[in-house]
Amino acid sequence: MLTEAKELQKRAVRNLVDAIKTKDEITFRAPTGSGKTYMMADFMNRILEESNDVVFLVSSLSKGELARQNYDKFCEYSEKGDFPHIKPYLISSEIAGEERLFVPTDYNVYLLPRDLYKAGGRLMQGAMGSFLENLTLDKLIGGCGKKIYLIKDECHVATNNLDTLSKMFFTKIMNFSATPNLKRGQNPDVEITDDEAVAAKLIKQIEIGNDDDTVADAIVKFENIKEDYRNLLGVNPCLIIQISNKDKAEYEWNNVILPELNKASHQDLKWMLIVDDDKKCDTNDVLKAKKIPVSRWKDYAKENTATIDIIIFKMVISEGWDIPRACMLYQIRDTKSKQLDEQVMGRVRRNPRLLDFETLSETAQKLAMTAWIWGIMPEDKGKKVFRVKLWDEPGDITENLQLHTTRLRPLDKKDDFNVTDYIAAQPAISSYENIFYLYKKLKKSDNSIVKMCYDYADNTDKWFAFTDNIDGIINENNKYVCDYMKSMEIASNENGTPKTVSFPVESQYTDNGNYINIGDWVWRRKDGQTKFAFDSDAERIWASIIKDLAADDTNEIEPRRVAKRVLVGKNNPDAGVNAEVDLFGETKPAKIDPANKYLWGKNYLVNSDIKFEYCLNGVHSSYPDFILKDCFDRVHLFEVKSVNISNAAPADFNGMEYKLKLEELKKCYKQSSLLTGYIFYLPVLKNDIWYITRLMDGEETTLTEEQFKNFVKTKQTVS
Predict the structure, then answer these.
(1) Is 212 exposed, middle or buried (0-12, 13-18, 19+ CB in 10 A)?
(2) Owning domain of residue 462
(3) Which three-class secondary structure state does DSSP give residue 473?
(4) Per-residue confidence band for 558, with pLDDT thresholds at 50, 70 and 90
(5) pTM of the shown model
């Protein structure tokens, strides 16, 4: 699993722990597929590690077997040693019945299925009340003296039954959902945004299909990528189609979908119709699916090796069903609910090769990170997501901006380090640690350490030798990796040649406000509008500065613009050496509808490869906010920061942590500037004043806003 993904999850959990210490109720929002169950377990484990008087009650508010799924995952995490402090127990009435249900009190994580706290249920009337009372009563009077933290999983689903018990029994309440209900006050205190999850490769980016594409078009698209999915990813892909409810569903199935599937050209496709009535479920998979109960179809269909190509459903898989191999969604049904749409989209956005993503080729990685969707426009926190595209016939912009990026070599790439020699030089170990403890330490290490272990350990003795010395190896790795003069190098392709990257041809951004109208940079909105939104007020202000600078005349004898201009437009097939001459003796232009655009733009996270690795408690990637190529062919990269903290500041804002990151970015950019020749900036907005750090040719300089503007306008390499 990529370091960026691990760190994103860890940061979210740290923020949750900090937030719950200051508030009695918090909400956590993370997109489906980003590891919400894993982060929930990590969060509970950290709380339980600090306090043995806390008990968690995890209520599963959605339909389906979510409680059972969570329980199985928690048991797996606990048994493997990932989160050893959690002791899960699934509250169930399947054996004894609600009236005779007994819940033991020697566990610390209890999972409560939705059906057990329905209105009028005996559990809520008797057994649950007695259980909660016993947990919370003071030890002096025979109780357990515990504090109960309630976790509402899929909190967007309304319920009043547990809410009535809140004041009596629950000390803290945590809401978890990919789509929290803002109308019910579930405003996220901690959040992983879609863009962050995509950048960390936790979830796929979305490619929206054309509005006029039919089911037939979607099936053809699926067939076109099916073999690539199998050959490059080792995964059988899946297209899911959502139909309407009741009578309309029958019409859509019998008149739109089934006739298409029955065509001779699609006879190799295996399909499955899953609805809420088992008798109406159907499949053409006679060799496998037909031979097992309908109740097991979803489990059968979700495996990466499952042979079901197309799944047709109503609402039965909108929540609580993980199918990472699903890569396409065609929605016929109009849910009129953004929450439901987001839940359904989550079925096709999981990364099918998350755990070993870095081992894939670039082509395979791009395929694994794309989800094709028809009928739904994704939203982030109820905010619109806009798709953007470069102003070019492929090449107009990307060929004029070819960048090198930097990465950090791991310890096993150090010329004078040999893991065999290192281990041999260590003092003999008298006794081995517990194997589960060692495995846990190894698993929590960076991917480079894990890889080093399995490259070295070709037998059990070597595995123990490595893991027993893992602390020392990690220290050696950190010393080397964090010494940028030794470990940093230009990123290269698989064949060892320096890799060049540019702006992605397509990307997207979330409408977070902070608007500017820009028509003269590298991006165009696919809807034709020129209003762009930015992540923060500081970004908006800095974008305005660059916009004004890009069009600003210099004081040279021959006036020039700051930003390099690029001619964009559709290539004219009639232009060139043999082009026709018009009545005025002029040849046909090279471009149809030509226009000059300034070569600068926002480095949108989705699809971006413009990143630079740095070290801060592990290896991370910095994606500069803006890139500009000036008319002198110098490349400027900007990472915008602000210390203007509002009341809505994220829970992870910590003065010291913030400063440490800034200092580490300075070191990273300083060495990157030496290797690449680019000019890096850290503009920090404090109140209304910019404090600008420039890293150029390995040197650090502090500039005022005016000094920065003067520098960018001139050929001089000093301010």
Answers:
(1) exposed
(2) 407-490
(3) helix
(4) low
(5) 0.62
